Amino acid sequence: MNVLIIFAHPERNSLNGALLDIARNELEASGHTVQVSDLYAMKWKTDIDRKDFPSFPADERLKVASASAESFSSHTLTPDVEAEQKKLLWADTVILQFPLWWFSMPAILKGWVDRVYSCGFTYGVGEHSDKRWGDRYGEGTMAGKRAMLIVTAGGWPEHYSSRGINGPIDDILFPITHGILFYPGFTVLPSFVAYRVDRLNEQEFSILSDKFKERIQTLATTSPIPYRNQNDGDYTIPTMLLKSGLEKAGTSGFELHLKAEPHL
């Protein structure tokens, strides 16, 4: 299996760095091939602007989606973006690893998504008609590949529970797991989240490491998050509203987009 890890932490000598080393060692020991994009070490450009589209006419108003589509189709994207796209096509499994900062990913990782997810590559693909609305949400360029998040948080697990003040961690990560990963077709695995990371002692780190190794060793067999595919009949087209009666009783919000368990 080919595994790509997008690593977004400014300090390599950190808990995130230790988890990255564990992941790579476990995967390579099992015979897998690993590539790592260490965004801070790469000094990744975070903002998307005219410099990302060298062939775009200087006197035209920049429309990012159309400029992105034209540059992608004409193979005139910048070399750093093209290199990351090749890595994504190479990978069987993609891992985004980052600390949870202000309820989201670090800006450098969002900048990686903004620049690498070109129109025609991860969005704006497929037929748009009264029967389909593009190849997305379960279909698309990344279909058949697995993906997951490795996230570190300073707060307690209780803070991110269903009644916790920060809100459920799965809801916080939904724009990433469902939007950034499931949208272009990835099969998304449950996230691995480490809590209270600034307060871990050696014994707690040992316990965390064992749990983490187990998750890494089971990347190929872990059951994915059961998101609903867009074009499988659960949504009306083109409004993309979930059809009534498909959800479990009492379900609302992001949970609506999880497949209901079959009635026994």
Offer a quick outline of the entry.
The protein has 264 residues and is an alpha/beta fold.
Task: Supply the CATH architecture.
Answer: 3-Layer(aba) Sandwich
Q: What would you give as the CATH superfamily?
A: Flavodoxin domain
Order of helices and strands: EHEHHEHEHEEH
Radius of gyration: 19 Å
Question: Overall mean pLDDT score?
Answer: 94
Total separate domains: 1
Q: The CATH topology is what?
A: Rossmann fold
Please tally the β strands and state the result: 6
State the low-pLDDT regions, or none: none
Q: Specify the overall morphology.
A: globular
Structural class: alpha/beta
The level of helicity is 25-40%
Instruction: Give the amount of beta strand, in percent.
Output: 5-15%
Distance between the termini: 36 Å
Biggest beta-sheet profile = 6 strands, parallel
Report the CATH C-level class. Answer: Alpha Beta
The count of helical stretches stands at 6
How would the blueprint of this fold be written?
Layout: E1 2-7, H1 15-29, E2 33-38, H2 64-73, H3 79-90, E3 93-99, H4 107-116, E4 146-152, H5 169-182, E5 187-188, E6 192-194, H6 202-217
Parallel strand pairs: 1-2, 1-3, 3-4, 4-5, 4-6
Give keywords:
12% strand, Flavodoxin_fold, 264 residues, alpha/beta, Flavoprotein-like_sf, Rossmann fold, NAD(P)H dehydrogenase (quinone) activity
Description:
The protein is α/β, with parallel strands linked by helices and 264 residues long. 29% of the residues lie in helices and 12% in strands. It has 6 helices and 6 strands. It has helices at residues 15-29, 64-73, 79-90, 107-116, 169-182, 202-217, and strands spanning 2-7, 33-38, 93-99, 146-152, 187-188, 192-194. Strands 1, 2, 3, 4, 5 and 6 form a 6-stranded parallel sheet that branches. Helix 4 (107-116) links the parallel strand 3 (93-99) and strand 4 (146-152).
